[in-house]
Specification:
Strand content: 15-25%
Strand order of the largest sheet: 5-4-3-2-6-7
Helix content: 25-40%
Number of strands: 8
Largest sheet: 6 strands, mixed
Structural class: alpha/beta
Distance between the termini: 74 Å
Order of helices and strands: HEEEEEHHEHEE
Radius of gyration: 29 Å
Number of helices: 4
Shape: elongated
Length: about 170
């Protein structure tokens, strides 16, 4: 009985070998899925100030474009511009209004300037009065209340606190 020979494609003896890319495609697919899962879809990039310890939260809501205030144990800043000094977890007396100690004069002046600025007033977050506040978690509520009160008096009633997602 004769054995049948298995069919083989004719190949040249000196030809190069073919590359099987199935495993490489699988690897790239896994990398793509990983990168898509870790990619941040938020429009706003928030980088905490040095030495600022943010409170933790379970909220997963992405922030929207707003004016960025940061309140640390040493200062109050809009973006990177220092507005007022903080000492012993409270604002300095010269920065507060004499008749209303919850009113921070430099903060009001800067927010009012932003609201009236020709280049800034057409932005949606200025019109709607939105602020993102990064505040140190060890500051007392009374200090935060002064910032919120002054911001609302300046026409920025929508204030959101920036938190870290729980660790």
């Amino acid at each position: 009985m004769s054995r049948r020979r298995r069919f083989e494609l004719p190949t040249k003896k000196n030809s190069t070998f073919t590359l099987n890319i199935t495993s490489m495609t699988d690897m790239f697919t896994i990398m793509l899925v990983f990168l898509l899962q870790t990619y941040s879809t938020s429009d706003v990039q928030i980088i905490p100030e040095n030495g600022l310890r943010l409170p933790q939260s379970a909220s997963m809501v992405n922030p929207t474009e707003s004016i960025k205030l940061s309140l640390s144990k040493e200062s109050l800043k809009i973006d990177q511009t220092k507005i007022a000094d903080v000492k012993n977890a409270d604002f300095l007396p010269q920065d507060l209004e004499d008749k209303d100690t919850n009113f921070i004069k430099p903060l009001f002046q800067e927010l009012d300037r932003l609201a009236k600025s020709e280049s800034e007033k057409d932005k949606a977050f200025i019109k709607e009065g939105r602020i993102l506040l990064q505040a140190d978690k060890e500051l007392p509520y009374a200090t935060l209340r002064k910032v919120m009160y002054t911001a609302s008096m300046a026409g920025f009633p929508q204030l959101k606190l920036v938190t870290l997602v729980g660790e």
